[in-house]
Amino acid sequence: MKRKLKVLFIGTYVPRKCGIATFTSDLLNSVSQENDLDEFKVIALNDIGENYEYPDEVVFEIRRDQLEDYNLAAEYINGTDIDVVCLQHEFGLYWGDAGDYIFELLSKIDKPIVTTLHTVIKDPEPPYRRVTEKLMLYSDKIIVMSKTARNILREVYDTPEDKIELVYHGIPDCPFTGSEVHKEALRLEGSPLILTFGLLNQNKGIETVLDALPAVVEKYPDLTYLVLGATHPEVKRNFGEVYREYLEKKVHELGLEKNVIFHDKFVQKKELYEYILASDIYVSPYIPKEQVVSGALSYAIGMGKAIVSTPYWYAQEMLVDGRGMLVGFKDSEGFSTSLLHLIGNPLECNRMRRKAYDFGRQMIWKNVGKEYVSLFKQTLEKNPQPAVETMTDFSIPSNLPKTNLEYLISMTDDVGIFQHATMGVPSRRHGYSTDDVGRGLVALTRAASSDEPQAGEIKRLVTVYLSYLDHAQTESGHFHNFMSYDRKFLDDNGSDDTFGRALYGLGHVCASPQLPQNLRNHALEIVRRSRPVMDDIHAPRAKAYTMCGLYEMLDKGIDKDTFLPVFVKYADFLVSLYETNMQEKWEWFETEVTYGNAKMCEALMLAYSLTGNPRYKEIGIKALDFLTYTQWNGEFFDLVGNEGWYKHKGNKAIFGQQPIDAAYLTEAYVTAYEVTQNEKYIQFANRSFEYFLGRNRLKAIMYDHSNGAVCDGLDPKGMNPNQGAESVVCFIMALEMLARYSDNKAVAQQHETGKGLMGIYEKREFSSNGLS
User: Fold this and answer.
1) CA dist., res. 495 & res. 708, Å (int)
2) Does 396 fall in a domain?
3) What is the per-residue pLDDT for 593?
4) 158 with 214, same domain?
5) Model pLDDT for residues 326-372, shown as the tens digit of each residue
6) 109 is in which domain, residue-wise?
7) Which three-class secondary structure state does DSSP give residue 262?
8) What letter does residue 514 receive in the DSSP assignment?
9) How far is CA 235 from CA 47, 200, 246, 355, 379, in A?
10) Residues of the chain with pLDDT under 50
11) Residues 6+ apart with CB under 8 A from 594
12) Is there a single domain that holds both residue 122 and residue 63?
C-alpha cells in the first residue's frame, strides 16, 4: 500500500480578505476530501503590518516584504516530510521586482513544486517576463485555469506542453434554482436583481453599467443593481474610497438612488453564495481584456446565472455556445440592449442559465480537487524525494566557548534565579522556580571544577540556590515549585519533575569536592529529608533526574545503603517502561516523544556505570540512537517541537524547539561515549551542542558570546529572543560536560571538517536492535 501524500500550500489564506486566500482555502478543503492525501499545511503570505488569527493548518507566516522570511520558510519546508508544494502565484502577492522575492524560497527548497498561475501576461514588461520564465524553470507542473492562459505560456514563454495543465477555477456545488426564495432570505427587494461582486477597484468598470441602467430602469422601474464587495485593501490603502465615491456621485447624477445598492462588505462564502443565487443576471463589465481567469465569473457560471460581460479573455472563452452575452468594453449602450433582451425574454434567459450551469459541473470543487491530487501524484512519481545530503558548512567555531557566568549572575538575586527574562531583562512578574534552581546547581557545580577565577562567585550562587531549595522543601520532603517575586509560594507541591530536578542539583552539590563541606552537608541533609517522597514519584523523567543526582552521590559512596535501592528501582522502572512501549521502529519509553527526552537515556547509562548491569546500557543506547534517528537529518539536529510533539505513527512537530533538548542530548552523548568509548557519540555531542551556535534549522545563533545569554527556542516566526533561566543553565551544563573532551585531537579534526558523522545514519534504517 502506497504512503498517502503530504501537501503544503503557499499563498494568501483566510481570514485574509483576498480572492486568492479564499481560493487557497477552497482548494485545500477540496483535496482534503481525497483518500490519497494524508496531511495539509499552509504557509500564509501577510502584507505589511498584517496579523491574522489563522486556523491550525497554517504552520508558517511570511511577511511579504521581509526577504528573511522567505529563507526561513524554505528552511522549514526542507525540514519536513512534505511531498509536494502547491504555490499560488499572482505578481502582486510577493514583494520585489515583479514579485521576485518568491525565488528566495523556490530556489532553496528540495520538494516538487506545482504552481497555479492566477495571472498570465501576453505582452509582459521585462521584469514580468523574467519572473514568469523563472516560475516555469522552478515549477514541475504549471496549472492554468483557461485555454487562453495555456496558449500564452506555449506561444510567448515557450513552456513545454507536458508541463502545463488546465484545471478550471473551482466553484461551489449548488443546485439549479430560481432566485425568489434566496431574495426573501436576504430580504432583497426588486426584480430583476442584477449583481456585480468582488473587491472594488477601477478595473471593475461598474460605471459602464450605471450609465446603461437609465434606459433599462425606464422599462423596469423595480430593477435593483447590487454592487457587492468592499474596496480592495491595496486600493483603499493607496487611494482611499475615491472610486466608490465617484460611483455614488454618478448614481445620484443619474437619479438611480432607488435602484442601485452598494454593499460595502467582504462577505463570507456562504453569504456570497446566497447573494449570487438571489440574483437574476450577473454583469461583469471588466475593463482590462488581458484577464485570463475570474473567480467571480466562474461562480456565476457554476451557479447558473444569466451573464452579460465585456470580452476579456476569460469571458470570451467561458461564455461561448450560448452560455452568456458579450458586450464591448465601456459599451453602456450594449449593456442596456443586452439587459433589456434578457429581461424581456425569460425563456431564452433560462436556456442561457441552464447551459452555464451544465458546463460548470466539471468545475465544482470536488472535481477540481481530484484533478489536483492526480497532478500531485504524477509530479511526485517523476520527482522522487532526494536522499539526505551531506552536512553543509554552518561556519561553526572550531573551539568551544569558555563558560561565561555573567548572564546567570545577572538573572540571580538574593532569593534565586528568575524564571524568565524579556530581551535579556529579568522578569520579576514571573518570579522563581525550583526547576531552574535545581538545574542551576548542576551548572554551577560543573563550572566550579573548571573556573577557579570565579570560585567565590560560584560559591555565593550555590549558597543562594541551596537556601532557596531548603525553603522550598515541604514538611513531607517534597518541594514547592513556583515562588512569586514577593516570596510567596504559589503551589502546595511541585510536580514529580520538580522533585527530580531539585534532587538532580542537590546530588551534584553533595558530591562536588570544589565546594565547602558545609554546603555539601546541607545539601545532603535536604536529600535525606526527601527520602520518603521517593517512593511516591511516578513520572519517568522525574525518576531520571533523581537518578542523575543520586548517581553523583553513590559514585562517591555517599549514603549507598539508603539510596542505592531507590536508584536501582528507578532504573528497573525505566527498563520496564521501555519494554512495554517499544515496538518496531519505535525504540522509546513512551508512545510520544516530548521534552527533556535524553535525560532518561543518560540515567540508564549511568545506572550501567554504577551497577554493571548490561541491560541498562543496552536500552540506554538503543533509546539514544532512536532519538538520533528521529532528530538528526545529516546536517543538524531538527529537534521535536512542543507544538504537537511526536506521537507514535504521527508526525513530528517542527517548531517550539527548546534548548533543553539540545543540551540534554549533548550530555547523553558524552555519557554514551564514556560507557562505550565509541567516538561517534562525542561527534554527535559536538553536533548537538552546535545547535546553540547556529547548526539548527533556522541557522540561528542562540548563544550570546558577549554575556553568556541563550535564547529560548525556535518558533515559526524565527528565534525566540527571550533568554530565560532554563536556556542558560542547560547550556552551561552541556558545555561543561562536553569540555571534558575538547582536547581530543581526533574529535577536534572531525569537529572542524564536519565529516565525522557522514554515513553513520545516512540510510536512516532502524530495527528492533537499534540503528543499522
Assistant:
1) 29
2) no
3) 95
4) no
5) 999 999 999 999 999 999 999 999 999 999 999 999 999 999 999 99
6) 5-170+369-382
7) strand
8) T
9) 13, 8, 14, 36, 38
10) 1, 386-394, 744-772
11) 640, 642, 645, 646
12) yes
